[in-house]
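Students often ask why inverse folding is considered easier than folding. One informal answer: many sequences map to the same fold, so there is more than one right answer. In these notes we will look at a single instance of the problem. The structure comes first.
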C-alpha cells in the first residue's frame, strides 16, 4: 500500500528532512493519512472516512496512483445505504477509543434503520455529492496511459456508474420531494460548512430537549477551541442527531417533523456539476438513453431552481429555510453556487464575478492572499479564526477555481490557483487559514488540502 503512494520517491525521505516542494509534500500527507485503501481527512481530529473528503482525496490521488484513487471511492461506495445515500462518515473500527464524537454507537444507524449497512458502521447523514467529478477525473487521468490502465479505469466507470446514479436519484427524490431542483439538508453537517452563519437563524429556532450526555473529543486536537464550533452549536448538532435517530432516518418521517429542513444551494450546485460529470460517465459506459435524458433533466432543473434563489441586492444565491419559509440572507462562499452549477448567462456571470472581486470577498483590502473567506468579512457573523465563519478553505478555493475554468474565466481561475498554492507553500496543508494573517488553523496535514493542491499543480506549470 505504501509503495502505491510514492511519487518521485516521496516515501524514501523522512518527512521532515527536506521541504522538497508542494507536490511531494502533498503526496506525503496523503500517504501518512492512509490506514489502508481509504484516507483519514486529518491525522488525529478525523480518524474515520468522510464522504466528500474522500471524493476530493480521490481527485488528488488520481494524479499519483489511479488504482489507489479508485480504492478510495470503492471503499466509500461499499457503505452506500439501500436508499442510495452515501453516508457522511464510514466509521473506522480501528480508530483509537474516544478519538471522535459522535461515534458509531451514538448514530446507531444500523440498529434503527434497515437501510443502513452494519459493517462497517456509518453515520445517518450525507454530504455534498462531488463524487462523480472525482470518478470522471480518475477516468481522465488514465487517458493516454498504457492500455491496461485505460481498461481498468473503464471497468471502474462501469462499476461505479450505477452507484452514482442511485446516489443522485436519492438526492433528487428523497431529498427533493417537492421536485424543486434543490436538495434539502437535515443538519449543518450535511452542508460540509458546519458552523457557517448560513445556519444560524435555523439553528436558533431549534429547541434542545433532553440530550443524553456527551464529551467532545474534537477540542483536544486543535490548538485553540475558538477554531471549532461552540458548545451551544454542538448541543444543537447533537439534538438534531437524536431527532433523526428517533425518526429512524426515514425520509418521510423526517420531512414531517424535523426542525432543520433547508434547501442548500451549495449542495444543490455541486449536484448539478456532478450531474454534468455523470452525464459524461453515462456516455462513456453506453448508458440507456432514458437514464441520460434523466440526468440532463436534473441539470436543467437544478440550474433553473438556483436561479430562483438569486438575491439581486447581495448578488449571490441564498439557501432557503423550508420551516421558516424564508431565505438565509448571509454572504458566504456558498452564494457562488450558480458559478459552480454553470450554464450562466453573461449578466449573472458578471454579477458573480463582481461579488467575488469585491471587498466583501477576495477583494477585501486586509487579506493576506486574494482568496475568498468562507464568510464575508462584512457579515456580522464573520469570525476570522472560527472554522466556516471566516477562514479561507483551500477546498473551497478549488471549487471556485474549477468552476471558473468551466465557465471560461481562465485568468481569474489562474489567480485563484496561484494564490492557493502560494498559501499552501507558506502555511502547509492546514484545514483552513486565517484570512488576514495567513495563519494555518484547525487540523494540520489535512488530506483534502493536500489533494486539491495536487489537482491544482497538475493543471499548471507550478
Ligand atoms: C468537518 O465536519 C466534521 C463533521 O462532519 C467535524 O467538524 O467534526 C467539515 O469541515 C466537513 O466539511 C468535513 O467533511 C469534515 C472532515 O474533514 O470536517
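Output (designed amino acids):
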Amino acid at each position: 500500500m505504501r509503495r502505491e503512494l510514492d511519487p518521485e520517491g516521496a516515501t524514501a525521505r523522512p518527512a521532515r528532512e527536506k521541504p522538497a516542494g508542494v507536490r511531494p509534500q502533498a503526496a506525503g500527507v496523503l500517504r501518512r493519512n492512509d490506514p489502508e485503501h481509504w484516507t483519514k481527512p486529518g491525522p488525529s481530529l478525523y480518524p474515520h472516512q468522510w464522504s466528500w473528503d474522500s471524493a476530493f482525496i480521490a481527485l488528488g490521488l488520481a494524479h499519483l496512483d489511479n488504482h489507489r484513487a479508485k480504492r478510495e471511492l470503492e471503499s466509500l461506495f461499499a457503505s452506500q445505504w439501500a436508499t442510495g445515500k452515501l453516508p457522511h462518515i464510514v466509521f473506522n473500527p480501528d480508530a483509537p477509543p474516544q478519538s471522535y464524537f459522535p461515534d458509531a454507537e451514538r448514530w446507531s444507524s444500523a440498529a434503527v434503520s434497515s437501510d443502513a449497512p452494519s459493517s462497517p458502521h456509518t453515520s445517518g447523514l450525507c454530504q455534498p455529492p462531488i463524487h462523480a467529478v472525482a470518478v470522471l477525473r480518475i477516468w481522465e487521468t488514465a487517458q493516454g496511459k498504457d492500455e491496461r490502465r485505460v481498461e481498468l479505469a473503464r471497468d471502474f466507470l462501469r462499476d461505479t456508474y450505477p452507484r452514482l446514479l442511485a446516489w443522485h436519484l436519492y438526492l433528487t427524490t428523497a431529498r427533493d420531494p417537492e421536485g424543486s431542483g434543490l436538495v434539502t439538508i437535515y443538519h449543518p453537517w450535511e452542508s460540509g460548512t458546519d458552523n457557517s452563519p448560513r445556519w444560524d437563524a435555523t439553528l436558533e429556532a431549534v429547541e434542545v430537549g433532553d440530550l443524553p450526555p456527551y464529551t467532545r473529543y474534537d477540542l483536544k486536537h486543535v490548538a485553540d477551541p475558538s477554531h471549532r464550533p461552540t458548545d451551544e452549536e454542538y448541543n444543537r448538532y447533537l439534538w438534531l442527531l437524536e431527532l433523526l435517530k428517533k425518526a429512524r432516518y426515514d425520509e418521510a418521517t423526517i420531512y414531517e417533523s424535523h426542525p432543520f429542513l433547508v434547501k442548500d444551494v451549495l449542495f444543490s450546485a455541486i449536484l448539478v456539476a456532478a450531474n454534468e460529470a455523470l452525464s459524461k460517465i453515462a456516455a462513456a459506459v453506453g448508458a440507456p438513453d432514458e437514464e441520460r435524458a434523466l440526468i440532463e433533466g436534473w441539470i436543467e432543473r437544478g440550474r433553473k431552481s438556483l436561479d430562483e434563489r438569486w438575491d439581486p441586492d447581495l448578488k449571490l444565491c441564498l439557501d432557503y429555510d423550508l420551516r421558516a419559509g424564508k431565505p438565509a440572507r448571509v454572504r458566504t462562499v456558498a452564494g457562488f453556487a450558480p458559478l459552480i452549477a454553470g450554464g450562466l448567462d453573461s449578466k449573472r456571470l458578471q454579477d458573480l464575478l463582481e461579488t467575488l472581486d469585491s471587498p466583501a470577498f477576495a477583494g477585501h483590502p486586509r487579506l493576506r492572499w486574494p482568496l475568498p473567506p468562507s464568510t464575508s468579512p462584512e457579515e456580522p457573523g464573520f469570525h476570522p479564526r472560527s472554522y466556516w465563519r471566516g477562514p479561507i478553505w483551500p477546498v473551497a478555493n478549488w471549487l471556485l477555481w474549477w468552476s471558473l475554468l468551466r465557465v471560461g474565466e481562465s485568468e481569474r481561475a489562474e489567480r485563484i490557483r496561484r494564490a492557493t498554492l502560494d498559501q499552501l507553500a507558506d502555511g502547509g496543508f492546514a484545514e483552513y487559514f486565517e484570512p488576514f494573517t495567513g495563519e494555518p488553523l484547525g487540523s494540520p496535514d489535512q488530506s483534502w488540502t493536500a489533494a486539491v493542491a495536487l489537482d491544482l499543480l497538475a493543471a499548471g506549470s507550478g
